[in-house]
Amino acid sequence: MELYKKPLPEGTTLCVYNRDRLIFSDSGRWLTPLFALERFLATYSGERDCLCAHDTAAGKAAAVLMSRMGIKRCHINLVSDLAVAFYEEHGIVVSWEKRIERLACKTEELLADMTSEEEMYRLLRRRAKLVRGVSIEAKKVSFAYADQKPILENLSFSVEEGGRLIIQGDNGMGKTTLLNVLMGKLKPTGGVVLIDGKEPSTLAKRTIGYIKQQQTQEQYPVSAREVVSMAVDPNLDTKQQKWEIDTALRRTGVFEMADRNFFTLSGGERQKVSLSRTLCQKARLLLLDEPTSFLDAKSRTTLVEVLHSLTVDEMPTIVIVTHDKELEADLAWPVLRLEGRHA
């Protein structure tokens, strides 16, 4: 009998081997051991050419996670038909001790008819509360400057923790005004906005990361690295701060220009440095105002790739305001359209 198929030690719910070498075990319940395995593999430098797992129970959720982590073979004490179908579809050799139609859990029900692996993974992270993002609740929000017609009127929408939203509309429709309301810089003249169940002005520092349109003509002797470093957690030691800054710069493709004056960079380059700053901040809510302004085709591709990775991995809540229909198509996120002077 192959080692991974042998009975689990008492109290252990998951064992993972590379061939016949045990590299990980856990005693947690539900999907906790698999998410712990994911964190372990993120820093594991040993061999992983043939990962084999033994789990106490596996529904479609476990199958999705194992496939994502590169498990090649698995033995399950109690497995569902949905899991077996997913394993076989993805070329994972699966064996079991008992097979049933479905596991009696809500997650199995939610995943039953889903086909997008990315969306299934996002759902599992939300249910496991492994989401950085915060909720947004806007109820009948209106805003008008003194003695002027409303820019926003009776606007209602919500975004769940780790959710995504594109706010579409032509210039002058109140998109940037809405961002300022979400940040607490403007107070609604009617209705209420709650971020993580709180008024925006009461949120902890660093909760919201904002990337504005790159239109400034100001000039200061500040490097791109210094701009990003303004967002790093000051409680980290110097070595960790440098790692966070360098990682954020590399992620957006501007590491090579880290020592250049920020204000001598092109608009698109400044936009990517600003995104690096927000990544370094680890904000729970990202607000982006016309992020594709001044971006060339290569920079647009980088932006979309970074946003995509954020929505799958860290999962902050992200709101983008734009009139760029191409970006809307590229991201395929839910859309809120602002039309006329009212929503």
TrEMBL record:
Highest taxon above the source species: Bacteria
Presence of keyword Transmembrane: no
The UniProt record lists the keyword ATP-binding: yes
SUPFAM superfamilies, alphabetized: Cytidine deaminase-like, P-loop containing nucleoside triphosphate hydrolases
Keywords of the record: ATP-binding, Nucleotide-binding, Transport
Residue ranges of domain ABC transporter in the record: 136-343
Pfam families xrefs: ABC_tran, TM1506
Protein name: DUF1893 domain-containing protein
Provenance organism: Sphaerochaeta associata
